[in-house]
Amino acid sequence: MKKQIEKYADLLVKVGINLQKGQTLVITTPVECAEFARLVTKKAYETGAREVVVRWLDELTDKMRYEMAEDAVFDEFPQGEVAILNDLADRDAAFLRISASDPELMKDVNPKRISRQNKVRNRALEHYMDRLMSDQNVWCVASIPTESWAKKVFPGAEDAVEQLWDAIFKSVRVDQENPVQAWRNHQEALKTRVDFLNEGKFDKLRYKNSLGTDLVVELPEGHFWAGGGTESKKGYEFIANMPTEEVFTLPKRDGVNGTIVSSLPLNYNGSLIENFSFTFVDGIVMEFTAEKGFDTLKEMLETDDGACRLGEVALVPYDSPISNQKILFFNTLFDENASCHFALGKAYPMMEGVEDMSKEEMLAAGVNDSLIHVDFMVGTKDMEITGIKKDGSEVPIFRTGNFV
Ligand code: ZN
Ligand code: ZN
Fold first, then answer.
1. What's the domain count of the chain?
2. Range of the domain at 91
3. 255 Cα to the center of ligand 1, angstroms
4. What is the predicted pLDDT for the residue at 1?
5. 189 in a domain, yes or no?
6. Residue 317 forms part of a structural domain
7. Based on CB atoms within 10 Å of each CB, which residue in 96, 170, 258, 377 is the most buried?
8. From ligand 2's centre to the CA of 72, what distance in Å?
9. Relative to the alpha carbon of 377, which ligand is closest?
10. Separation of 229 CA from ligand 2 center, angstroms?
11. What is the pLDDT of residues 247-280, one digit of tens each?
């Protein structure tokens, strides 16, 4: 186990972040993962990091704050914090985030307080987030187990933490002899799919399954697909999510019509939203349902104008190292890579020529903008996705849940 944890830390620094000599690494991590953060810090210095800056998170005191702090604080965000992150981003730091939340910790917290807080935060950090989303900075999101998370994934198991480590190792290919090589091969395989979709130049995708999904998603002119690795603006390849099994692009913000039904629960801000659906008309969610977490979902959709429009289309086969484990991780990083998904909110600007566009021009071209970007899972073993070209011809892309 200890050896695998070392291998994993190594993989994150060398492949996930692809840390360069002289570069600053920022690690954002729950305090529960301190030991692992120290290990990554050591690896980063050994790789030649200029400096490693660790930013500690603690959900338990965050929860107390949501429950007991003065109400006005949820509309504030410290300017000092903005300055620190902008400065690190502008100085070309790499950002590693350890995602390991207790999936239901915040379920009794007033969702309005959380969404107000997120809104001011995301607005204040716009510059920093834009830099990350447009790949000017390299970044990577990865996970390690915490006790509270592991117990939710493997309820009742005494070795829940070990089991979750194992599941994570399988998902990120650390169980393989040479994980770095395994990732190179995996990236090649994803690239084949990316090339197929880019060559197809599909105008629309039609989704259908027996859950009731019946949706047509238009793709904007000049869009492109990506997957596996991302090349930063400076030319360094990094992997923004580890694991990653998706190939993805952006939808046209006003070109989504029909109904999409969720296939897995969504963990949003520490609450679970389950068995939900959205009905879109010309890109906007006109109706939505949720068996559980309706208020949280409503709060999310009301964040701003772009929050009720799609910002990402991602294809993931039903058979993948993550989905084949048949584990519900209650963590989007894993669950989204086990299933076809979409995101509501801000789009990655994956379109030719966006560099020269203003914010208004991007919106007009179909690139959605919002303070949120929330992935939700829709893939099933009977999912059918058909590509429709400009001339009306159709090409099957997914049949029985997998790439054709
Ligand atoms: Zn995605
Ligand atoms: Zn996403």
1. 2
2. 2-171
3. 19
4. 87
5. no
6. yes
7. 96
8. 30
9. 1
10. 14
11. 999 999 999 999 999 999 999 988 899 999 999 9
Q: What is the mean pLDDT of residues 30-49?
A: 98
- Which residue, among 59, 78, 55, 56, has the nearest Cα to 67 in the 3D structure? 59
Angle formed at CA 246 by CA 182 and CA 162, multiple of 5 degrees = 60
In the Cβ-directed half-sphere of 300, how many Cα atoms lie within 13 Å?
A: 28
Same domain membership, residue 138 and residue 17: yes
Reported as a single tens digit per residue, the pLDDT across 59-103 is 999 999 999 999 999 999 999 999 999 999 999 999 999 999 998
Q: Do 16 and 159 share a domain, yes or no?
A: yes
> What distance in angstroms lies between residue 336's CA and the mean position of ligand 1's atoms?
6
Residue where the block lists tokens 């390690």: 144
- Nearest bound ligand to CA 372? 2
Cα 178 → chain centroid: 26
Contact 105, 148 (CB under 8 A): yes
289-295: Cβ within 8 A, 24+ apart: 292/265, 293/266, 293/268, 295/111
Q: From residue 26, how far is each of 13, 31, 56, 140, 323 by CA, in Å? A: 11, 15, 11, 10, 30
Q: How far apart are CA 335 and CA 340, in angstroms?
A: 10
pLDDT of residue 320: 85
Enter the tokens of residue 142.
């990865």
Residue 116 sits in the same domain as residue 204? no
- State in Å: Cα 246 to ligand 1 middle: 6
Distance 249 CA to ligand 2 centre (A): 10
Residues 221, 116 share a domain: no
Report d(CA 239, CA 232) in Å as an integer: 10
Question: Ligand 2 centroid to 33 CA: how many Å?
Answer: 24
CA of 156 to the centre of ligand 2 (A): 31
Q: Quick one: pLDDT at residue 152?
A: 94
Spatial CA neighbour of 172 closest among 5, 38, 23, 60 = 5
Confidence of residue 321 (pLDDT cuts 50, 70, 90): confident
Q: Ligand 2 centroid vs 31 CA: distance in angstroms?
A: 25
Average the pLDDT over 370-375 and give the result.
94
Q: Is 137 found in the same domain as 66?
A: yes
Q: Could you tell me if 97 and 219 lie in one domain?
A: no
Name the helix (H) or strand (E) containing 315.
strand 310-315
Last residue of a domain, one of 156, 171, 186: 171
Question: Is 313 a domain residue?
Answer: yes
Q: What is the CATH number of the domain that holds 18?
A: 3.40.1830.10
Which ligand minimizes its atom distance to the CA of 227?
A: 1
